[in-house]
Amino acid sequence: MNNTKDTGGARSTPDAPSPRTLISRFPHLRQDFAASLVVFLVALPLCVGVAVASGVPAELGLVTGIVGGIVTGLMRGSSLQVSGPAAGLTVLVFEAVKEFGLPMLGAIVLVSGALQLLMGGLRLGRYFRAISVSVVEGMLAGIGLILIAGQLYPALAAKAPDSGLGKLAGLPGALLGALGDGTALASLALCAGTVAVLVLWKLAPARLRAVPGPLAAVGLATLAALLLGLPVATVEVQGLLGSVQPPPLGAFGELASVAAIGTVVAFTLIASAESLFSAAAVDRMHDGPRTAYDKELIAQGAGNAVCGLLGALPMTAVIVRSAANVQAGARTKASRVMHGVWLLLFAALLPGALAYIPIPALAGILIYSGAKLVPVRALASLWRQHRGEAVILAVTAASIVAVSMFEGVLIGLALAVAKTAWESSHVKLEVLEAADQGADTVEARLSGNATFLRLPKILDSLESLPTDRPLRLDLSGLHHLDHACRTALENWAERHSAAGIDPVRVTALRPRGEALGAV
């Protein structure tokens, strides 16, 4: 069949696709285009703010946002969640840059991305859903507390201490020192105004709310700083290509240290957990296709590998951008890809515009974002319903603030495992007369899960039994009997028989009725 048309003997080429044909091929293009603009406006100040708070050039935050939109956005996994530099990794990135240097950051991010690709290929993505929610919420709460404390210092035109406890302890002195400093007061006022705009933006008229809150807050703060001539620090800008620095080969050799390996593991686990938990949250916001967790982990790994090659910040799925994407009416992954294109065009064509953004305004955005990471209401509700989970959340958060991110998460996981093991080790002891063994025979029946955690309780109960009568120990009701309990029961049986006035026979049964032996 010939697609050309005959027009008086002349042959013409096929007509170009009309707008109607384009819409028929991409039925959701209009919704995705509008949503991409909204996500771009939300992502722009967040990319810059996270980069500045992480101690790296502002352009690297934009690079990660571009890669998250274009590279990760094109891949399968979660169709509507948006990736980029996340406030949740700010503290960890800052510590890594301080300890290892900026050139080393790319190597760490690249290896972390490779590990995510490996875990996704091994179909381990689904298992991240088994991580205790209390540990994850505690991790985010600890990050939020450090983020708030750390960003109060640039809001006061002061230098932040290095440790989490140092940041908290130094705040009273920093506030007192700012009282007589006009520059510090101007900076604090601009930061407070930014936070106020973010908090009150939901009360603005509907037409104004069409502009994303973060963009409005940064825009108003920038305008105020320019019109009032406020003596506040602004973002330092370099060329986008000049800020891209692939990690040198020597940096990979330095990854063999214990500290570097711990940082890589922390990057990998935290970024993966945050992304996949974000995917689960986004799935609850829409009725479209559900997340394929293993594919999403591969997409995150590919994005982080590219970010590592470019020497940029690590990426995760960001719930703020993802929620904005869903609420703006996005239908397909085209919205997040286009948002990456808008970031690229802005960074390439208007990089000088970043130099007008006041750092206190970005600090205000991150303080607001950090406050949203601290689940105050959820903690109060959790304390009323599940106090053990509330303790895990609080201990994880406090450990992250007091020690570091990696150790704090490990402490939280260890506490969650210990709590689960303790709650699953329920043992019940019943003592009754055994008619088939004679009227004087006592039968002790154990049921449940006999582990070393409940061993003191088991032995206290058994040692309270009489030693002058025949006794039969029945373990057939046990679902689990670990080695420590088995050994302790055998030793107790021997002691019980030796202590009897008359010859005593103790018959012990294995779970499900198999004979263990007689003493």
Can you offer a commentary on this structure?
The chain has 519 residues and is α/β, with parallel strands linked by helices. The protein has 2 domains: 25-372, no CATH class; 427-518, STAS domain (Transcription Regulator spoIIAA, 2-Layer Sandwich). Helix content is 62%, strand content 9%. It has 22 helices and 9 strands. The chain has helices at 19-25, 29-53, 58-74, 90-100, 102-121, 133-155, 164-178, 182-200, 206-209, 213-228, 240-243, 249-253, 258-283, 293-309, 319-327, 334-349, 359-373, 376-385, 387-402, 405-424, 455-463, 483-499; strands spanning 5-7, 10-12, 82-84, 316-318, 427-433, 442-450, 471-481, 506-509, 515-518. A 5-stranded mixed beta sheet has the order 5-6-7-8-9, covered by helices on one side. α21 links the parallel β6 (442-450) and β7. It is elongated. The termini are far apart.
Q: How would you briefly describe this protein structure?
A:
With 519 residues, the chain is an alpha/beta fold.
Query: How far is it from the N-terminal to the C-terminal residue, by CA?
Result: 93 Å
Per DSSP E runs of 2 or more residues, the count of β-strands stands at 9
Shape: elongated
| Strand proportion | 5-15%
| C-alpha Rg (nearest Å) | 31 Å
Give unreliable regions as ranges: 1-12, 501-519
Instruction: Determine the mean pLDDT.
Output: 80
Strand order, largest beta sheet: 5-6-7-8-9
Give helix % range. Answer: 55-70%
Number of helices: 22
Structural domain count: 2
What class, by secondary structure content?
alpha/beta
Describe the sheet with the most strands: 5 strands, mixed
